[in-house]
Each structure stands twice: as C-alpha cells, then as structure tokens.
Amino acid sequence: MTSTKDGAILKTDTKGRLRTPLARREQLLDEFERSGLSAPKFATLTGLKYQTFAGWVQRRRKQRGDAAPVAAAPPAQLRWLEAVVDQAAGTDPAGLCVQLPGGARLIVSTAQQTMLAAELLRALAQPATPC
Question: What is the pLDDT averaged over residues 21-32?
C-alpha cells in the first residue's frame, strides 16, 4: 500500500502496480471525454501509462456500444478561456503567457499586442495548407 500527499491510501496488486479506484477511473474517463485531447496526451498529462488508460477507454466504449477506437480521438480544438487576475495576489506584471502546442510561448504584455496575438492564434488554428 502507498499513501498520497493528502493521506489517501492507494492499494497495490501482487505485482506492485497501483490500483485506481473505480470512482476515480470514471472521473478520469469523463474528464478525458470533455478534454478533446488525444488518449496518449491525456494519459501523459495525468501520469497514467497509456496502455492502462487505453484499456479503460476501450472497456468503457465496449460497454456503451461505441465502435470508435482509442486512436480516433478528435483533434484538439482552439478553446478560449476567460481569466480574471487579481493584481494584489502577487502576480507577475510582465503580461499574459500563452503556452502553445510544441512548447512555444506567446507573451502578451500590452493591450496593443492582444489583436496580434488573437490573429496569430486564429491562424494557428487553421489547417495547414501544402506549399
């Protein structure tokens, strides 16, 4: 048995693998369906082994009668999120940092840059055209 930071006890099987409670597994699968991420990306972000997670997804789809394979997850779409930042909370006044796929960062530090940033993000969301 292993314990987490919050004191929860996690059971292990005879091979030492952590056992995920059914309620937590269902919560992760619901979150995956809402995320729009691919299964490998979601597994990486949540710290799960892809093979384990793919098995969960396949069993759930089989129970529901869905025929879609795990690898056929829809591509992630651009989503906007409104954030309100309290300056008194010790935030960095340097600006807004947007983490882009592939590790690139976009830092918007003035109001004039917001239009350019929005145009760039719209362009990046469009499918690539062959040269």
Answer: 89
Q: Which of 21, 28, 1 is nearest to 12 (CA)?
A: 1
Mean pLDDT (whole number) for 7-31: 77
pTM: 0.45
Cβ proximity of 19 and 50 under 8 Å: no
Q: What is the pLDDT of residues 39-66, one digit of tens each?
A: 998 888 888 889 999 999 999 999 888 7
Q: What CA–CA distance (Å, rounded) separates 103 from 98?
A: 10
The encoded tokens of residue 39 equal 């299964």
Angstrom distances, CA of residue 113 to CA of 26, 49, 55, 77, 116: 41, 40, 45, 23, 5
Residue 54's H or E segment, with its range, is helix 50-64
Burial letters for 54-79: b for 16+ Cβ neighbours within 10 Å, e otherwise? bebbeebeeeeeeeeebeebeeeeee
